């Protein structure tokens, strides 16, 4: 879905599935959805920059991508930190000579518990990681996206931002805010030739949610196919 949005917004049909010469930033690209998006963009010819707060995981992924011949670079960054977000975009600007075609705001986290049990610190951490990070990175990256003359932003949201779930109310609120930000930026930045879209998946079988699916097998019955989506790249 992410790649379809990018191609539909950036290319005519004759050049679809070719990102040669394009640059991309994917936050949280060392596992799950982010990892799959990094690989897909790079295999389609884009030069990709990614980040992770886990240096060991980042170095391992960068080495694997290098062996595959993919053009991927990255740095350690905790997107919940304002100074680290600033440094991330400085690195991206330097790597891509002040221009950026694609921004995938993917990094996110969740703390599952009843609403009355959240602490102020947990609330701040969820909003800082899931919402504020994407908002601020968009602000910082706007000059780079505008300079490319063909810019596209994709927010990785969640079904939780659209419907009621029994837990994770703060997570759901961050995704709801993200969805509204997506709409507003799409209108505000269209004049700069920057398209803004969001993708809101249901549960996908990744390392971060496998235990949740195991404990709540009924989640699979909320989908038309009665199964949880999987990362085809893992097979």
Characterise the protein shown here.
The structure is a single chain. The chain contains seven helices and eight strands, in the order H-E-H-E-H-E-H-E-H-E-H-E-E-H-E. The protein is 44% helix and 15% strand. The longest helix has 29 residues, at 120-148. It has two domains: 2-201, NAD(P)-binding Rossmann-like Domain (Rossmann fold, 3-Layer(aba) Sandwich); 205-235, no CATH class. The protein has a six-stranded parallel β-sheet, sandwiched between helices. The chain has helices spanning 2-10, 32-43, 55-67, 82-95, 120-148, 169-188, 210-215; strands spanning 23-27, 47-52, 72-76, 102-105, 151-156, 194-199, 204-205, 229-230. Helix 7 (210-215) links the parallel strand 7 and strand 8 (229-230). It has 235 residues and is of the alpha/beta class.
Characterize this entry briefly:
This protein has 235 residues and is an alpha/beta fold. The protein contains seven helices and eight strands, in the order αβαβαβαβαβαββαβ.
């Amino acid at each position: 879905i992410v790649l379809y949005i990018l191609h539909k917004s950036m290319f005519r049909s004759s050049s679809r599935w070719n990102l040669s010469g394009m640059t991309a930033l994917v936050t949280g690209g060392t596992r799950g959805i982010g990892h799959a998006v990094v690989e897909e963009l790079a295999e389609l010819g884009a030069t990709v920059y990614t980040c992770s707060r886990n240096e060991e995981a980042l170095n391992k992924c960068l080495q694997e991508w290098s062996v595959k011949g993919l053009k991927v670079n990255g740095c350690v960054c905790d997107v919940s930190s304002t100074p680290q977000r600033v440094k991330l975009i400085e690195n991206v600007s330097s790597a891509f000579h002040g221009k950026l075609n694609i921004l995938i705001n993917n990094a996110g986290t969740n703390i599952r518990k009843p609403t009355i049990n959240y602490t102020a610190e947990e609330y701040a951490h969820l909003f800082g990681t899931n919402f504020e990070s994407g908002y601020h990175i968009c602000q910082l990256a706007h000059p780079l996206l505008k300079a490319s003359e063909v810019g596209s932003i994709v927010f990785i949201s969640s079904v939780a931002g659209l419907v009621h779930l029994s837990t994770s109310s703060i997570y759901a609120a961050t995704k709801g805010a993200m969805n509204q930000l997506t709409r507003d930026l799409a209108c505000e930045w269209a004049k700069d030739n920057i398209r803004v879209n969001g993708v809101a998946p249901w549960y996908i079988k990744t390392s971060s949610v496998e235990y949740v699916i195991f404990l709540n097998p009924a989640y699979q019955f909320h989908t038309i196919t009665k199964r949880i989506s999987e990362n085809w790249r893992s097979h």
